[in-house]
Specification:
CATH class: Alpha Beta
CATH superfamily: Ribonuclease Z/Hydroxyacylglutathione hydrolase-like
Largest sheet: 11 strands, mixed
Mean pLDDT: 75
Shape: globular
Number of domains: 1
Distance between the termini: 73 Å
Strand content: 25-35%
Number of helices: 5
Helix content: 10-25%
Order of helices and strands: HEEEEEHEEHEEEEEEEEHEHEE
CATH topology: Metallo-beta-lactamase, Chain A
Number of strands: 18
Structural class: alpha/beta
Amino acid sequence: MRVAASKLRKSGIAQRISSVSDDLVKIRQAERRKVEIVTDQSFELPGGKFLHISSDHSKHKGTKFAFLGTSLFPGRTEPCLLVKNEGRCFIFNCGDNVYRELQRASYLEKQCTIFITSMDINNVSKEGLLSPGVLPPPVVIYGPQGLRQYIRATLRACFARVPTKYTVHELLLNNDLRVGNQQSQDLMHEDELYGDDLLCSGNDSYPLVEDDHHNVISWSLCQKKQSCGFIYKETGTKDCSSGNSIALVSRKSERVPWCLKAKDVDVLVHEIDNTIHGAQIAGDQAKAINAKSLVMSGCSRTGSQELEAAKSRFGKASVALSMDHVTFTLNNNG
């Protein structure tokens, strides 16, 4: 009886393993079909601009952006948006899989800055990125209140060191949320450099980066959950004299406050909640700000229904899905 029971248990385990293997094969097949759908597409945008989508990272010149950690949603964590231009990288959100993707891909430039949209656990699992040799020093991070303390606690709990040093700038909604800046020497991690507590400027936004080629601003999307949106804009390059612009908003965004900030943006990157309703909201918001194109992250494995739903609400055909190992390029050249 014991032998028979043992055989039955082993048989049941084998069947479950086989079922899981079959599911993984189906997921990979669906993902390959999705790649075939979106790879090597080009959208002509108003103003003579083009949005190119290709699996060949070097095929087009211009402002490049890619997604790391999206390809098996919902089995993997939130995506990371990486914008690359003029020798700098801007990384928006850092899920668990981003570390692995950066290790296997040549995305990084000499300067990298990290931006976090919210304190969602899927967005802030970035400790691996602080390891030596992953990001060029110094590591500069912007995000909502609580980010600085979270990184300190995690590094201390893991007895981790950051030889290249790091600094965290927190975005505060008002003075009441300030927690003493927590800059005293006894609270700071031993490898931490002083960061700033940034309050909203007069137009309810946070100017974060501004130099000869790049401009990044942030604004509050949802006060209850301390969620931020970001706009990256070129301030003048050889390829794009008019300056390309990319806006990133999360699924936690409230509809009204951020619309004027991202008006007429070239690309709206919108996280959705893996539903047709989420895609409809993304399409509505892209239309409200008169975006020239829409890229959705967090879709299902094929995304065809979400695509059609977003196109219907947006009223434009320039809608695409985020994908691992696919590069999006904005330029003025067809």
